[in-house]
Amino acid sequence: MHFLENIREAFRSIQSNLLRTVLTALIVSIGIMSLVGILTAIDAMKYSLNATFSSLGANSFDIQAKGYSNRFRRGGVRGKTYPPISYLQAQQYKAQLGDEGRVGISAFIAGAAKVKAGSKETNPNTQVVAGDENYLLNQNYNLASGRSFSQQELENGVSVAVIGAEVREKLFGSNSVNLALGKYVYMLGRRFLVVGTLDRSGSSMGGGGADRIVLIPLEAGNQMPRQQALTYDIKTAVLQPENLPFAMDQARGIMRAVRHDRLGQEESFEMESSDSLANKLDELSGSLKIGGFLVGFITLLGASIALMNIMMVSVTERTREIGIRKALGATALQIRQQFLIEAIVICVLGGALGIVLGVSMGNAVSLFVGEGAFLVPWLWMMLGLLICVTVGLASGYYPASKAAKLDPIESLRYE
């Protein structure tokens, strides 16, 4: 028996035991599905989140006061906190950076506000943000109707507002893109005139994005009653993404001077770009891939044990057939090849089904995190096929070796 004849014989054996082959292939397919599915889901979610980070501005970076993430004790030592960025410091930074970047200053006013218009009101989940003329541009928020704030409104803190799509629909109806303009809304004890509405943006993070936001002029936010001083956030965008590292270094120097950070002292502020968020996502996805690979490996280990058991049963059932083949001149190597090929074919058939199911499952899972294009993970598909062949070899080697070592005389006597 030559090699091609062994392959044909393996397929004939599989066809004669079709039900057993299907059940065995399903066991392998479940293992491959779990492995490929988990890895595909991680890649698809990463793709979706990277798209979200890009929409937030791949050519921008944020500056915030340091200290809010290290307030808890570490090793018995309480982390140092720094004063928030003041309005004066934010304005000084904006003036000194000049034309090197487009600086937007904003302040978080409220995160669980109710907005009313007549007899209707929103749920208490609306964010109220005060921003300057560059806020909408830097955040990549698009106007659906109306306009942004005029320079006079920004300077005088006029009570005008730009509202998100969900706020608009809740207060003025689903077809109120233009109807909301010129109407008044009430929030935080003050009345605001709606001068613009935002396009629906959604959010892969589940927070509503720009849909649950009410934007007011920065000076109007400074005039709002509050129990403590506002904390100002600064977002800087550059026109050319390749200039981002230079702009961040320049901004760091300006901000240290504005915040009066002495030489040798750590910075009292944090700078974070979408690139750094993507790097953190890469680290997190790497850990998730390791965990997913371990889960898939354990599942495949169970599948390989089941396949080995079935191949052992197959060798026992075909003992007499093996004796006949040896009596007709088949060598031990040819008998071993026959059973190894049979095990590999079963694994590849099951693996092909598992890959299709895994890719579909991974992309379906990613839809719960965010919207993204259908991802075809060629690397994981090739890895899945390679693992199938490896599992077939590992599971079929011992049964094939046992079959090759059978004595032809004893085998012919087997009933």
From TrEMBL:
UniProt organism field: Hymenobacter oligotrophus
Molecular function terms from GO: transmembrane transporter activity
UniProt-annotated location(s): Cell membrane
Topology of the protein relative to the lipid bilayer: Multi-pass membrane protein
InterPro entries cross-referenced by the UniProt entry: ABC3_permease_C, MacB_PCD, Macrolide_Exporter_MacB
Transmembrane segments: 21-42, 290-315, 339-358, 378-398
Keywords: Cell membrane, Membrane, Transmembrane, Transmembrane helix
UniProt domain MacB-like periplasmic core: residue ranges: 21-221
Alphabetized Pfam families for the sequence: FtsX (PF02687), MacB_PCD (PF12704)
Protein name: FtsX-like permease family protein
Domain ABC3 transporter permease C-terminal: residue ranges: 294-408
GO CC field: plasma membrane
Family, per entry: Belongs to the ABC-4 integral membrane protein family.
Taxonomy, superkingdom: Bacteria
